[in-house]
Amino acid sequence: MNEHTHILEDGTVVTHTHDDHHGPHGHTHSHAHTKAVLNRMSRLIGHLESIKGMVENGRDCSEVLIQLSAVKSAINGVSKIILKDHMEHCIVDAVRDNDKEAIDQLNKAIDQFMK
Question: What is the pTM of this model?
Fold first, then answer.
């Protein structure tokens, strides 16, 4: 078992253990950033709710668009954390275990994400 500590851009400190001894297709998803990702998603959901309230209250369209743009950036930020975490752990394991399927899945996910 290895222990990793990561400090995220927003200052969150995340520590997790990573099991280096599992066979092909056996990687467990104990991701470093799960808590940080969930926190960010909760904030995003709250932000979207407040934008919905702005629309319901007839707030200025340009204000709504600015807030939506902020949400879009935040979604990209969360996606980047997940992608980096996936590359650091799952893909490292997949390359070591010659797991072509995991690499193909990552390629598909990147194609979707970059549309």
Answer: 0.64
For the chain, which domains are there?
2-113 (1.20.58.1000)
Distance CA 33, CA 42 (A): 14
CA 23/CA 73 separation, integer angstroms: 37
Q: Are 86 and 34 in contact (CB under 8 A)?
A: no
Q: Which two tokens stand for residue 93?
A: 């394991």
Strand runs (DSSP E) across the chain, as ranges?
2-7, 13-18
Summarised one tens digit per residue, pLDDT across range 54-110 is 999 999 999 999 999 999 999 999 998 888 888 888 888 888 888 888 888 888 888
Cβ neighbours, 10 Å, residue 100: 10
Separation CA 80–CA 15 (nearest Å): 18
pLDDT digit string, tens, across residues 15-52? 555 444 444 444 455 566 788 899 999 999 999 999 99
Q: How far apart are CA 111 and CA 105, in angstroms?
A: 10
